[in-house]
Amino acid sequence: MLENWNKPQIPEDDELEERLHTARAKLSSLAMQIKEHGLPVLVLFEGWGTAGKGSVLGKVIKNIDPRFFKVATMDEPTEEEKRKPFLYRHFVKIPEKGKFEFLDSGWMDEIVNDCLHKDMDEKEYKKKIESVKRFERQLTDNGYLVMKFFFQISQKEQKKRIDILKEDKNTKWRVSDNDNWQNKHYDKCLHVFDRYLNDTNAPADPWYIIDAKSRKWAELQVLETLVSGIETALKNSNLAVPLLQNVFPLEKIPKLGEISLDKELTEEEYKKELKKLQSKLSELHNKLYRLKIPVIIAYEGWDAAGKGGNIKRITEALDPRGFEVHPIASPEPHEKARHYLWRFWNRLPKTGHIAIFDRTWYGRVMVERLEGFCNENEWQRAYNEINEFEKELSDWGAVVIKFWVQIDKDTQLARFNDRQNTPEKQWKITDEDWRNREKWDLYETAVNEMLKKTNTTYAPWHVLESNDKKYARIKALKIVIEEIEKRINSVNN
Fold first, then answer.
1. Whole domain around residue 193: which residue ranges?
2. Can you tell me the distance from the alpha carbon of 407 to that of 303, in angstroms, rounded to the nearest whole number?
3. Do β-strands 207-211 and 399-406 pair in parallel, antiparallel, or remain unpaired?
């Protein structure tokens, strides 16, 4: 794109000023429409050092109510951020519905810098490009407008600006070592930038190359492109998104009705196994921390199936400083205003730590599907989006363990009645639990489809037969230990 880029013609001064005036007024007007229509807009500014990204950004945001936008400068990732997945710090920045988020540099800058300074091999580059493409496509599929601008200047122009900045003691600090390095290795940088732009240029979120030699001209290009993109997005906001075919490896899994629930343990067997397995898990937790392996344990299952007790037996074996349990309820307003996976990205563990989710992102294809909180196109798309999310976690190096806690209908009724009739347990039973029970068959159909479409080789489902809670707890501990040991052995070897 850059290597064969044809520089656009700069208009005459009078025309430039007139178009600037028009574009500024349009953006100001559209900002209110964005708020009314709930359109989230993510704007990415990339480009050469000293190309004027910050200057243009400052002029663009003057046309927007400051209550409706945020600006973030994505510097080098912190040590804390390096212990999260690559896209974590970018995903958490996505805007709420009806608001703008402007990023002064982002995931492109991070990738190309690693490429240029030989911190990334070809295999890792391709993996991150796929991550970026999935990330950006998920945003656009879920109603985000993603606008990507690359500010282009010549080597000569960059050198000129660097020299001017260096001449003044008040501005010389703005010239970074990377700016100097870029200018010295301009052709090499151009090639790497060009490859990245080509690799991540998509119809739904294309790259726009900005001729940044003139600041006003650069501002006009950004404004007019932004206005055009917003107008198109508002017009197309109700169009359905095509469903993607699954490309991830799946394994067969039995339907819930085919699973025998007669498995049980005696109290003596349970206590003996529990002590042994908890001791083993405690030992493994130390190894996890030392090897910086993250673990994500996801629990789904029927109401009253025993998820809480199951989680408790796992956490009893863990160092409390190295894990966190996330009970997932209905999304808060600020969570509902973003991509449905946003609140789970925010809760991912650091390397070496364990995150346990009591209810998960699978609510999209169960509760939200059956209760009408999302439309059919949205929950049908979610199977692939969830597989992508878990692939991202697996590629990061996380052990992903997913449990479905299974009981039969009679067992659930008995436990509901026990909770209802026992004062100290009544807080555990709600009207919603009874309403959900009435939809048992519908939920079972949805769960079977969920298991079938998301039982990937890298994040398989494990069904815990929980009519006997003791059996389910021991089985869960065994699976957690087995999966962690597999990952530790793969790292050590």
1. 13-235
2. 9
3. unpaired
